[in-house]
Amino acid sequence: MHRLLHRHLGKALAGAALALTGTAVMAAVTLPADAGATGATDTRPAGAPAPGRGPGAPPGVVEPAGAQGERGRGRDPLTDDELRRARDLAQPRALRNAARNVTGRPGPEPLLTDLAERRPSEAGLADPPRRALVSFYDYATDGYVTTTVNLTTSRVEATDTQHGVQPPPSHAEAVEAARLLIADPLGAGLRQDYRHATGHDLTGPGPLAVTGFVYRGRAEGDAPGALAACGPHRCVRLFTKVKNGPWIDTRRLVIDLSARTVARLG
Description:
The structure is a single chain. The protein is of the alpha+beta class. The chain is 19% helix and 22% strand. It has 5 helices and 10 strands, in the order H-E-H-H-E-E-E-E-H-H-E-E-E-E-E. Strands 1, 6, 7, 8, 9 and 10 form a 6-stranded antiparallel β-sheet that branches. Strand 3 (131-138) and strand 4 form a beta hairpin. It is globular. Keywords: Signal. This is Tat pathway signal sequence domain protein. It comes from Streptomyces siderophoricus. Residues 38-113 are annotated as: Disordered. Residues 1-27 form the signal peptide.
């Protein structure tokens, strides 16, 4: 079971899957108490120094990170200040008022903010402009928006909105999907398995560790009528695990975050 689950989880997004059932199914993951990260057992005598440390060697010290400047250089990762400025520039007031996030509140749902690639014409510059690529999802229009921000000039250089394009969901979207599933009648199997595993009622996503992946509806095969809008709509499936506990199989359940509904595959 240990090898099966690890193999499954490593390949799940590529299409590998455990046998599915009509309701949520718990799968316990058990590791030997004396196994390390590689599965090997520590056979050193009691009191022997750890490998790589001689007798009397001082313990390792974690040093605090150095002070972070307002602006990075070259291909340095975006600083906290650059991340904030990039998101603010990419979301003008009109967009913040009109767009909606995954919970329906004003403002788009943030996805990724990353350092943009340098342009070929800037390859020889000693200090080329720093650009950020900001992406988010607008649930008011089901639009995937990507904006290129020049952090050196504080200007938006390009904005592109696509419909029917579904990037991987954020953690916040996966949590909201779990919240909708728990509250839905189709979440009865999840609630039942959680109670069986913990002895407590599941009333919200807090006790769960969830990871979401996109479901594109007909692009992935036959989709039930309730899921026909997936693709244009933002739909996700979930890997669900009780924190410090077993996995609960919820992959046959699809949460349409745009319509805030739940449906079952098959």
